[in-house]
Amino acid sequence: MTDVLTVEATTLSGGTAAASGVAFLDFEKPLARMQQEIEELARCQRETGRDLSTELKQLRTNLKATLKRIYANLTPWETVQVARHPKRPLTTDYIRTTFRDFCELHGDRTFGDDRAIIAGFARIGRHRVMLIGQDKGKDIKQRMACNFGCAHPEGYRKALQKMKMAEKYGLPVVCLIDTQGAYPGIGAEERGIAFAIATNLMEMARLRTPVVAVVIGEGGSGGALGIGVADRVAMFQNSFYSVISPEGCAAILWKTAEKRKHAAEALRLTSRELLKLDVIDHVIPEPLGGAHREPEAAGANLEKFVVGALDDLTRLTVDSLLAKRQGRVRRWGSFYESPSELRREEENRHARRSTSRTARLGSRFTRTQPIPA
């Protein structure tokens, strides 16, 4: 778990923070000290009646500048810590802030209702969608109920069943990924967790409706891939997406979890690296200091991406949609025999992305601003 320091503090703009306080990560200790100074100065101003507004303004300016500097240079391990922040918005938060008219659907019609995966009808922008998301829970009771976001086979069967329902009714599917991985217990193995995930990979690749997936926090292993085969895959700026957790990788390669920082660097799990590798299509920006500092703003950014992606995807024919999705999955297995070959592929990838963006903008201009005769 991530080490955090909780301080009751004022916000950057000078308002009062939530009663639960602000949780600082271990690399944010300078921010914690500055925040405490601001709180002490504000208390002094209240108790003595002295005008300390100039000093408070300067401290808040310094705090904001320091926050910006720290988050502009996050290491991969620090990114992992931000993605695991205890205050980071979860699927349930985005259901409240970003989606409307959510109607939850339960069960897999075979074994039970896995609370690690939430599914149901919802609206976002002008689109009606089937929303499927992984939930970690907010307090210890909720976290135990949903296995800390680690789904059992019945969770993946539930997700697939709801995707098939969306296909039947012509609804796009939106998946919110946030898990360390699938549940590793004996019961999950006995009920076929690997088979359930593999089935989802196959069926999602040929699902005849648009699919959009977003990594909102942790994207760990097959647990994330089980709802991650999509036409558009995006990540929040400070999330991560990896074949294994840094701790698990370090335990295998170095025989100790203490090497997790080295593992995080080697895995190239950040949004910036994965965009270069063409594993994802888009990076969703986060508010300064991470999504946990301004959940409403993060929700607005999520809505902007999802609505834009659905606007594009719903214009395509089903056959074109499937061809592009399956081609995208097949490209994951490519490798390069030399650095020069890698550079050429990166240049071609950049050119394709630029051409696609230009064409998309051009088509929007043509529809909204017809050229006069």
Describe the protein in words.
With 373 residues, the chain is α/β, with parallel strands linked by helices. The chain folds into three domains: 4-73, no CATH class; 83-332, 2-enoyl-CoA Hydratase, Chain A, domain 1 (Alpha-Beta Complex), CATH 3.90.226; 335-368. Helix content is 50%, strand content 16%. The protein has 15 helices and ten strands. The protein has helices spanning 29-48, 53-72, 76-83, 91-97, 140-145, 153-169, 186-190, 193-205, 221-225, 246-253, 260-267, 271-276, 295-313, 318-330, 339-368; strands at 4-7, 22-25, 100-105, 117-124, 127-134, 173-179, 211-220, 232-236, 240-242, 282-284. The strands form two sheets. Strands 3, 4, 5, 6, 7, 8, 9 and 10 form an eight-stranded mixed sheet that branches. A two-stranded antiparallel ribbon has the order 1-2. The radius of gyration is 22 Å and the shape is globular.
Number of E strands? 10
Number of helices: 15
Q: Helical amount among residues, as a percent range?
A: 40-55%
Nearest-angstrom radius of gyration? 22 Å
Instruction: Please state the overall shape, judged from the principal axes of the Cα atoms.
Output: globular
Distance between the termini: 64 Å
> What structural category arises from helix and sheet content?
alpha/beta
Count of all domains: 3
Mean pLDDT: 85
Low-confidence stretches: 6-20, 365-373
At CATH's second level, what is the architecture of the largest domain?
Answer: Alpha-Beta Complex
Order of helices and strands: EEHHHHEEEHHEHHEHEEHHHEHHH
Fill in the CATH topology of the largest domain: 2-enoyl-CoA Hydratase, Chain A, domain 1
Q: Please outline the major beta sheet.
A: 8 strands, mixed
> Which CATH top level class of the largest domain fits?
Alpha Beta
CATH superfamily of the largest domain: 2-enoyl-CoA Hydratase, Chain A, domain 1
Percent of residues in β-strands: 15-25%
